[in-house]
Amino acid sequence: MPRAFIIILCMALVTMIPRMIPAFIVERVRFPEWVNHWLHVIPYAALGALIFPGVLSVVPEKPWIGLVGGIVAIILSIFRIHIVAVVLGASLAVFFLI
Question: Which domain of life is it from (predicted)?
């Protein structure tokens, strides 16, 4: 086998093993209720951290346009409107402000 193939295979294993271990351990471990609640909130916090900088940089010279789009998205999501409609509503708000 070529040396490069062995290196790629080892890198794949080193990457895969830490990702697979939690899938087998989490089912066997019982966490307190507050830990479960905290673990369910993490995806929303990560999503917010990824989206918010983009909201401010829609139009770099006019960050208020992105903020208005974000506020429209928040208002629509409060009314539990389908996610596609929320994205379209925020996009339309930004489109008309540009």
Answer: Bacteria
Q: Helix (H, G, I), strand (E, B), or coil: what is residue 84? A: helix
Burial of 97 per CB tally in 10 Å (0-12, 13-18, 19+):
middle
CA distance 69 to 92: 8
In our burial notation (b when 16+ CB lie closer than 10 A, e otherwise), range 42-54 reads eeeeeeeeeeeee
> What's CA 77's distance to the chain center, in Å?
16
Lookup result for tokens 């905290």: 38
Tell me the two tokens of residue 42. Answer: 């993490």
| C-beta separation of 58 from 66 below 8 A | yes
pTM of this structure:
0.57
Encode pLDDT of 64-81 as tens digits.
Answer: 999 999 999 999 999 999
Return d(Cα 86, Cα 91) in angstroms, integer.
Answer: 8
Residue 58: how many other CB atoms lie within 10 Å? 18
